[in-house]
Design a protein that fits this description.
The complex is a heterotrimer of chains A (296), B (263) and C (198). Chain A has 296 residues and is an alpha/beta fold. In chain A, 36% of the residues lie in helices and 21% in strands. Chain A folds into 3 domains: 152 residues, P-loop containing nucleotide triphosphate hydrolases (Rossmann fold); 64 residues, no CATH class; 47 residues, no CATH class. Chain B is mainly α and 263 residues long. Chain B has 2 domains: 146 residues, no CATH class; 70 residues, no CATH class. Helices cover 71% and strands 3% of the residues of chain B. The radius of gyration of chain B is 24 Å and the shape is flat. In chain B, 41% of the residues are buried. The longest helix of chain C is centred in the last third of the chain and has 30 residues. Chain C has a single domain, classed as Arp2/3 complex 21 kDa subunit ARPC3, CATH 1.10.1760. Helices cover 76% and strands 0% of the residues of chain C. The chains are: A alpha/beta (296), B mainly alpha (263), C mainly alpha (198). At the B-C interface, helix 4, helix 5, helix 7, helix 8 and helix 9 of B face helix 2, helix 4, helix 6, helix 7 and helix 8 of C.
Chain lengths: 296, 263, 198
């Protein structure tokens, strides 16, 4: 059963001459982890807002086509009705703090209170959400005393506590350091195993190569690639649209041209695949200087 | 250095009163002090009551210090200006060279000063013993629309964060050679580079903040629930209603007296 | 549009988030200004910005709540002037609606109008609650005016207008410049902003 159905989605922001999204059509099955890549301005954030039901309700503008999430048509329902079914985590951790609550515990409760969840049920859900993101010991702290990575995990908990069927993330690690990013990715990976559908806009291709079930590449508002990480992350089109390849993918591609990578083997999109492939070919990958001198 | 909190953490009987009870007292006191019949009496009684409550909660010294800090300049000016220059002055109390201190002016200044001190005591009773977040929560539970309680509550936590940002921008601009001392034109020119980055960055955050609120059901219709409940007693509920009625009666009496009779 | 629909539109989540940020700006900018030791307060710049973007009622609410919150956390005296702060927002919003905030020189005139109107509201509060006194250097001007034979009301009126006129003109100019400088994508979400930008 497709939990996200997009059909012919075209959207233009008010006051803009060109559409931000052009005729998108795709479906996402329950429990999939879909990564969305693309250069800046390709429409990735706009797609997130459309899947969350915030476009067209809050942004007006012109929309054609339909977006249906968890069976709800986004042009027929107010954002409030999506809140318990679709979660959205944004880039800036500080902006996702409501400012209404003085402890992490109460901050996470904010969404439950808005949606009228009975008080008796709240502690269990809050504690579960805090455990999922690893913030249980910090439940008493003031949200503003947390680090960026901790605040982002709190934002994640604040959404997870609503038990959404679909979780959208728009560059959630863009403002985090590597340790913070790793923590977020681990949480998301654990989530998918429990059946939540995840759509994540990300630039860190290593993680996508390792964990995503499917990758959508956007360019200028259109889906130009849609397939497994193995296919998409090694497609030449990905470099043309400004996203680029992982270093070891490039290394293997170069190696292929010089007989250092088996022709019959697909290009690697994870470090393990690269190491295995090069070992099999019995050669060492080209050095940094060779890569830089020949940047194809 | 601007203080961002008057709240004095503690666990006294005053702290444990329901926030709305204390709010009702402060508001009723303000109404009675300024609108009630009797001038001095209307001001002194609620003021002394408030001070008594503060004393019994061990907050008197703090209240006195804050009161002096906030009201000293105004009080001094009141006595100087009305004492010397009040148009009502007829009887002279004291002569200082070419200036005369008039009795009517001093009396007027005294009344205003007592009123201000009394109203301040009434509000300090609330502000010292109530955590701002709890006051907002109490208002929300009492039925204030959640949008309004968001506007009352979130600036309280945002404030220290943005004050921190101000320091950063100040330091950055000064490192770029921004002059903040010197002649007036130079200081005026320094205004935009200090104000603009803060305002722009704060305003551009607004969109993301509102989206984050939306996805947590901020605009969802339907009844809301709350995680915590504040302890309230039937006695306090009665007291709040009584205060409301009392303030209303005294206000009506005071207005009637002023309009129809002699003050 | 019915009243409740209009309320919902005027006070969308976006507007509420804007007002919350503007309230904080009102309070915090005073710090910046005191660093520069200029004869202005800049404590209503957030109010005017909200009025320009979201209309008079949102602007009025910003001013009102700024003073109430400031009264709660730092200086209860400020709460008494909440109506004045509210009027600043309402007047700025109405002036913008009337098309008087499009050019920089119009912003200056609007600043003067705001200063005059707010003084009219502020005087009764000043005189009745505070005996006409502010506790600042402006009181010396009031004293002088009283000594020369004016009555309390007009003495305070002149002092308050004088005290506020520079501040409100600067505030109006800065708010105008800032709103014009905001990216189109942001201001486009505020329908009332077109009265200032176009």
């Amino acid at each position: 059963m497709a939990v996200i159905e997009v059909a012919g989605l075209t959207y233009t922001y008010p006051g803009s001459s060109a559409p931000a999204l052009k005729d998108l059509t795709f479906q996402v099955e329950a429990g999939q982890l879909v990564a969305v890549v693309g250069a800046n301005g390709a429409g990735k954030s706009t797609l997130c807002l459309a899947l969350a039901g915030l476009i067209p309700a809050l942004f007006h503008g012109q929309m054609r086509g339909t977006v249906s999430v968890c069976g709800l048509d986004t042009s027929q329902h107010a954002p409030g009705q999506f809140a318990g079914r679709v979660g959205l985590v944004l880039q800036n951790p500080a902006n996702q703090i409501s400012g209404m609550r003085y402890t992490v515990y109460e901050e996470v409760a904010f969404g439950l209170e808005n949606l009228g969840v009975p008080r008796a049920v709240m502690p269990g859900r809050i504690e579960h959400a805090l455990d999922q993101v690893g913030l249980a010991e910090l439940h008493d702290r003031s949200p503003y005393t947390l680090s960026g990575g901790q605040q982002q995990r709190m934002a994640l908990a604040s959404i997870l506590v609503l038990e959404p069927a679909v979780l959208l993330l728009d560059e959630p690690t863009a403002m985090l350091d590597p340790a913070g990013s790793q923590a977020v990715f681990e949480i998301i990976h654990a989530l998918v195993r429990t059946g939540t559908t995840v759509v994540i806009v990300e630039h860190r291709l290593e993680w996508i190569g390792r964990y995503a079930d499917r990758v959508l590449a956007l360019a200028e508002g259109e889906v130009v690639l849609d397939g497994t990480p193995a296919d998409v992350l090694s497609s030449p089109l990905l470099r043309q649209i400004g996203v680029g390849w992982l270093r070891y993918t490039r290394a293997a591609h170069l190696g292929q041209k010089r007989g250092l990578w088996p022709d019959t083997q697909a290009l690697p999109v994870t470090l393990e695949q690269a190491v295995t492939g090069f070992q099999q070919a019995g050669a060492r990958p080209p050095t940094e200087e060779q890569l830089d001198a020949d940047p194809r | 250095m601007i203080r961002y909190s008057l709240y004095v953490p503690g666990d006294t009987w005053l702290h444990r009163l329901h926030p709305l009870t204390k709010l009702s007292f402060s508001l009723a006191a303000a109404v009675i002090i300024f609108g009630g019949p009797g001038g001095w009496l209307a001001a002194l009684l609620p003021g002394l009551l408030a001070l008594l409550a503060l004393w019994r909660a061990g907050l008197f010294r703090q209240a006195a210090r804050t009161g002096v800090r906030l009201l000293a300049p105004v009080t001094v000016m009141l006595f100087l200006i009305h004492g010397f220059f009040s148009p009502q002055n007829q009887t002279t109390l004291l002569r200082l060279g070419p200036f005369a201190i008039g009795q009517e002016g001093v009396a007027y200044a005294g009344l205003i000063a007592v009123r201000l001190a009394a109203v301040l005591a009434g509000s300090l009773l609330l502000v010292f013993s109530t955590h701002p977040g709890e006051l907002v929560q109490a208002l929300t539970n009492a039925g204030v629309p959640h949008g309004l309680s968001y506007l009352l509550g979130s600036p309280l936590l945002l404030l220290p964060q943005m004050a921190g940002r101000v320091q950063v921008i100040q330091a950055a601009q000064q490192a770029r050679g921004l002059e903040t001392g010197g002649t007036l034109p130079r200081r005026v020119r320094a205004l935009f580079p200090l104000v603009a980055p803060l305002v722009f960055s704060a305003l551009l955050d607004v969109e993301e903040r509102s989206l984050a609120l939306e996805v947590r059901g901020f605009s969802a219709p339907g009844p809301r629930t709350s995680l915590r409940e504040q302890p309230d007693t039937p006695g306090q509920r009665v007291a709040r209603r009584a205060l409301f009625v009392l303030a209303g009666l005294l206000l009506a009496a005071g207005v009637a007296l002023r309009v129809y009779g002699r003050h | 549009m019915s009243l409740s629909q209009r309320l919902k539109a005027d006070f969308s989540t976006l507007t509420l988030a804007l007002i919350a940020v503007a309230i904080v700006l009102n309070i915090v900018l005073g710090q910046v200004v005191s660093l520069l030791k200029l004869p202005i307060f800049l404590d209503s710049i957030g109010t005017v910005i909200v009025a320009l973007l979201a209309g008079p009622w949102a602007g009025g609410l910003t001013g009102l709540l700024t003073n109430l919150i400031w009264g709660l956390i730092s200086d209860p005296v400020a709460a008494a002037f909440a109506p004045v702060a509210m009027v600043i927002g309402i007047v700025a919003g109405l002036l913008a609606k009337a098309g008087l905030f499009k050019k920089w020189w119009q912003a200056i005139i609007s600043g003067v109008i705001i200063a005059v109107v707010l003084s009219i509201i502020a005087i009764p509060i000043r005189v009745f609650m505070f005996g006409g006194v502010t506790g600042s250097g402006a009181d010396f001007i009031t004293a002088y005016l009283l000594a020369t034979g004016r009555d309390l009301f007009s003495a305070v009126l002149i002092t308050v207008i004088g005290d506020n006129i520079i501040d409100k003109v600067v505030t109006a100019l800065l708010a105008w410049a800032i709103v014009k400088g905001l990216p189109r994508r942001f201001t486009g979400r505020f329908p009332r902003a077109s009265a200032v930008i176009d």
